[in-house]
Design brief:
This protein has 228 residues and is mainly α. It has helices spanning 2-23, 31-62, 66-96, 102-113, 129-167, 177-188, 200-225. It is a multi-pass membrane protein.
Length: 228
């Protein structure tokens, strides 16, 4: 019983995702994939019926796992809609001897992608306990990642404001605060170039040298202008 409730559905869900990926590249409309689709749909439908017969509708819709059960039922309903739509569109196309309608095919492809949503269901199975812990760890780390992004934005903002006020009049990359922030962000991500392709580090070195040279000339002129 544990195999039927836990291991087997998880394996079928993973197999369904693998078949979906392969069929997207290899003979998408081949009859083999249609057989697989019918098999998966029959399995999910049978699983729903078996659970309902074994545990009753009260447990299924109001029990401890009611959220997962509603999710399963939603996925089964989407699968039926996808399969029905596919057969109807193909039947209409065969009857009229016209190619499949593009909008209908896009709709079918979108419904087909919903099969991947079933992978979320694997998190409830004990066989995928380690995977569940990894996912929970990633979700828990999102808060730390959020504050790390806030810190990065604060650093970029303060540096951008300083750069705009110091060199914004001379460099178009820093003409305003948003442009300065974007230029600094590009420097963080290995794209620290000016609009003409020159590295901004060259501009910074040139400006520093010019400022130093200008300061030296000013001091020299002041010394010369001083009375003997």
């Amino acid at each position: 019983m544990a195999v039927m409730v836990d291991v087997l559905p998880g394996i079928v869900i993973v197999l369904n995702a693998i078949v979906l990926g392969i069929s997207s590249d290899v003979a998408e409309d081949h009859v083999v994939w249609q057989v697989f689709n019918v098999f998966f749909l029959a399995f999910y439908t049978l699983e729903f019926i078996v659970k309902l017969a074994m545990f009753g509708w009260r447990w299924y819709f109001l029990g401890e796992d009611w959220a997962w059960n509603y999710f399963d039922l939603f996925c089964v309903a989407l699968s039926w809609v996808e399969e029905s739509t596919t057969w109807i569109v193909r039947a209409m196309s065969s009857a009229s001897d016209e190619p499949l309608d593009l909008n209908a095919m896009v709709f079918i492809r979108m419904l087909r992608l919903t099969r991947l949503v079933r992978l979320v269901r694997t998190l409830r199975f004990e066989i995928f306990y380690e995977l569940k812990m990894m996912v929970l760890g990633v979700v828990s780390g999102m808060r730390v990642l959020f504050w790390a992004m806030v810190l990065l934005i604060v650093i970029i903002y303060t540096t951008g404001v300083a750069a705009k006020n110091m060199i914004g009049q001379h460099e178009p990359e820093f003409r305003d605060v948003p442009s300065a922030m974007f230029s600094i962000f590009r420097c963080f991500t290995d794209g620290c170039d000016a609009y003409d392709g020159t590295p901004l580090t060259v501009y910074a070195t040139t400006m520093a040298f010019s400022s130093s040279h200008l300061g030296t000339e000013s001091k020299e002129q002041a010394r010369i202008s001083m009375p003997g």
